[in-house]
Amino acid sequence: MRDRLPLQTERLELRDFREEDVDAVHEWASDPEVVRFMGWGPNTREQTREFLQRKFAERTGEPRRTWGLAVVRRDTGRVIGSVGLRLNEHLQQAALGYCYHQDAWGQGFATEAALEVLRFGFEQLGLHRIHASADARNGASVRVLDKIGMRQEGRLREHVLMRGEWRDSYLYAILQHEWTERREAPGERHD
Ligand SMILES: CC(C)(COP(=O)(O)OP(=O)(O)OC[C@H]1O[C@@H](n2cnc3c(N)ncnc32)[C@H](O)[C@@H]1OP(=O)(O)O)[C@@H](O)C(=O)NCCC(=O)NCCS
Q: Of these four, 70, 90, 111, 131, which has the most CB atoms within 10 Å of its CB?
């Protein structure tokens, strides 16, 4: 089956969101530090409920175009973040995004989950290109994009007004053949 969930890595399970995830999601979605570089939030509880409702609706698309997944620690069962792909209408390209609870930062979780989502996108969904953008001030996110083998393609200067400030964003992408080359390169770790 080409799009079977859940996805698993050494430490994480990536699965669809559930109703009972609302408290865990709200912990990070209501944290001003977590959403500092995001185009949404900090959420009210109602906004977090709406976020989950959108996730439930998005998974029913046929073919499915949005894969917004809960990131769950396999050792504790705790939902620590979200990671996802949003495919374009031709199902050949997708945008990668992610967001984690502050408690989970700095332990390699975002990198581990994003690599699995790239694998899923290229090897199971057959995508040609996966791209991402990050606020130029968001050093941790830029580092994650570098670590997972995406290439920086440019910098959009002051292209969006966010919380009263004009934001610069780095654009990143990886192509399917680059993913395959990286997988096959001797000495590379991808899990
Ligand atoms: C960005 C985010 C996903 C990173 O998650 P994470 O689990 O801490 O990421 P990882 O541990 O896999 O890797 C983080 C890397 O960034 C580095 N880093 C952390 N803060 C940094 C900073 N201010 N500048 C540069 N690098 C930084 C870490 O040292 C690590 O690199 P290393 O492995 O070479 O040491 C997380 O901080 C987050 O959820 N932030 C809020 C939401 C967000 O900004 N999402 C991205 C929107 S584009």
A: 70
